[in-house]
């Protein structure tokens, strides 16, 4: 499993402050992406729902049509803004997520878009696991009241670095996605996410470190900035965790961009020291990465 990360890699997580005005959100994202590019970022990540407020009441009114691809600027201003940002910055850009509407099915999705340094769409991931929770006295939320889930694992090669896995927020709670990505050769798992003040305090850092520890790869979570005036309060604390489950960098609660330098040595040293990849007992239990895994919608 050596050689997953073929070249040193600088990751930037933009903990963006978003509001009700989509055009302002897109303009703010552009300035932060360009700033990160000038700082040497190989890949820039925006948070979940970076172009809109987060909430079931907002998804339909902010949703954009992405298919057939490419959409027109009228159908998806966010698609074209992200494409332009990536090309202008000359860097890989993961557009957090945006609400998507599919006219053929009349369904809404929470959708992440990855663009190349030339502004080309490389991959699309629809949130597979919807955020439906009920913690008595704390928070109740049901994304499934409005959204429909995606139906695939999303892995993509980003030359000259290697392969990454894409997922969104609540997907991080399901280790199967991370395990499949790692065993398929990903060096980095990316999760734009908007945990709240309850689940963030409980599990945000724990989930990031657990996915990194289990799979001995880099893991990054990118949150929106916290806004206590908003109807939904994001946790913040965007972070990058190394293959040994050490937090390399962590944002606070407000808007900021954090950076981490990733290298192959950290992956190799972790796997040599604790050689999980040669110790698994697939004669006792199955290798889920070789099962019936869907890589297409």
Give the key terms.
single chain, 7 helices, 297 residues, 15 strands, seven-stranded mixed beta sheet, 26% strand, alpha/beta
According to DSSP, the number of beta strands is: 15
Tally the helices: 7
Report the end-to-end length measured between terminal Cα atoms: 28 Å
Q: What's the assembly state of these chains?
A: single chain
Q: Helix share of residues?
A: 25-40%
Strand % is 25-35%
Shape, please? globular
Spans of at least 5 consecutive residues whose pLDDT stays below 50 are none
Main beta-sheet strand count, sense and barrel state? 7 strands, mixed
What structural class do you assign from the helix and strand content?
alpha/beta
Q: What's the alpha carbon Rg, rounded to whole Å?
A: 18 Å
Order of helices and strands: EHEHHEEEEEEEEHEHEEEEHH
Mean pLDDT value: 97
Task: Give the SSE layout.
Layout: E1 9-15, H1 22-38, E2 43-45, H2 59-62, H3 77-89, E3 92-94, E4 98-102, E5 107-115, E6 121-126, E7 132-135, E8 139-142, E9 154-158, E10 162-166, H4 175-183, E11 186-192, H5 197-215, E12 218-222, E13 239-241, E14 247-250, E15 256-262, H6 264-273, H7 276-279
Parallel strand pairs: 1-2, 2-3, 10-11, 11-12
Antiparallel strand pairs: 1-15, 3-5, 4-5, 5-6, 7-8, 9-10, 12-13, 13-14
Helix pairs in contact: 1-3
